[in-house]
Amino acid sequence: MSTDVTEIGDILAAPTPSAWVVAAVSRWPEVLVDHANCEKKAASTALALIFAYPEDAPLSVALSRLAREELRHFEQVQRAMTALNVPFQRQRPGRYGAGLRAHVRTSEGGRKLDLLLTGALIEARSCERFRLLAPRLNAPLSALYEQLAHSESRHFELYVNFAQTLAPDEWRARLAWLAAREAELVTEPDEQLRFHSGPPRMV
Ligand SMILES: [Fe+2]
Ligand SMILES: [Fe+2]
Predict the structure, then answer these.
(1) From CA 89, how far away is CA 148, in angstroms rounded?
(2) Ligand 1 centroid distance, CA of 203 (Å)
(3) Are the CB atoms for 144 and 76 separated by under 8 Å?
(4) What spatial distance separates the first Cα and last Cα of the chain, rounded to whole Å?
(5) CA 115 to CA 119: how far, in whole Å?
(6) How many Cβ atoms from other residues are within 10 Å of residue 101's Cβ?
(7) Is the model's pLDDT at 188 over the cut of 50?
(8) What's 106's DSSP letter?
(9) How many CA atoms lie within 13 A of 160 on its CB side?
């Protein structure tokens, strides 16, 4: 499988606003706690797809590997939290996940494609934000985020490749539509600061 869409800029409809970067750098501990949750969620999203499409053996094998990699990321984030003395704190979920899920079609003929494309968008946004944060944070997060940016770029390609194979005629237009929705969620002012949030609303 191959795709001619391999650059983040070809997937994401808008870049992360600089106001989010400034807030995330200054409030890095709470973003780190949310990041730990994101890694768990990435693993559970991959597992949910394996359960939903057990007849798709290539997808199951690829996502099984991906889920294990995401859990290793979770362990790395946990170690960084311990090293940096950042305690776990329960947080209310941000709007991003639910906001994206609201656009996933509920019946087949579209649902699998939408799940793959939203997976690609989440991974691409993660990759973009790790790249933005890595040079602006201190050790050990700078090195960790640089490493994770590489992983997430492989992950968005994986999801895009499966979407392209599934729906060669439809995937590009559907990706563009979903990417526009995703861009709204990460650029419009947000009540909460999260790894995938918009910039904090000014009060
Ligand atoms: Fe990850
Ligand atoms: Fe990932």
Answers:
(1) 22
(2) 32
(3) yes
(4) 48
(5) 6
(6) 11
(7) yes
(8) S
(9) 27
**115 alpha carbon to ligand 2 midpoint, in Å?**
14
* Confidence check: pLDDT of 201 > 80: yes
Question: Count of alpha carbons within 13 Å of 37, Cβ hemisphere only?
Answer: 17
The bound ligand whose nearest atom lies closest to the alpha carbon of 153 is: 2
What pLDDT shows up at residue 1? 44
In this structure, are residues 152 and 124 in contact, taking their beta carbons and an 8 Å threshold? Answer: yes
Ranges of H-type helices in the chain: 8-11, 18-26, 28-52, 57-83, 96-101, 111-133, 141-166, 171-187
Buried b (16+ CB within 10 A) or exposed e, 105-121: eeeeeeebbbbbbbbbb
Angle at 187 between CA 186 and CA 188, to 5 degrees: 105
Mean pLDDT of the chain: 95
What residues flank ion ligand 2 with Cβ within 5 A? 42, 123, 152, 155
Residue 4: the pLDDT is: 54
CA distance 157 to 7: 9
What 3-state class would DSSP assign to 129? helix
pLDDT at 109: 79
Structure tokens given for 179 = 């990417």
| Partner residues linked to 190 by β-bridges | 200
Residue 144 identity (one-letter amino acid): L
Q: According to the model, what pLDDT value does residue 2 have? A: 46
**Residue in the structure block whose two tokens are 């939203």:** 118
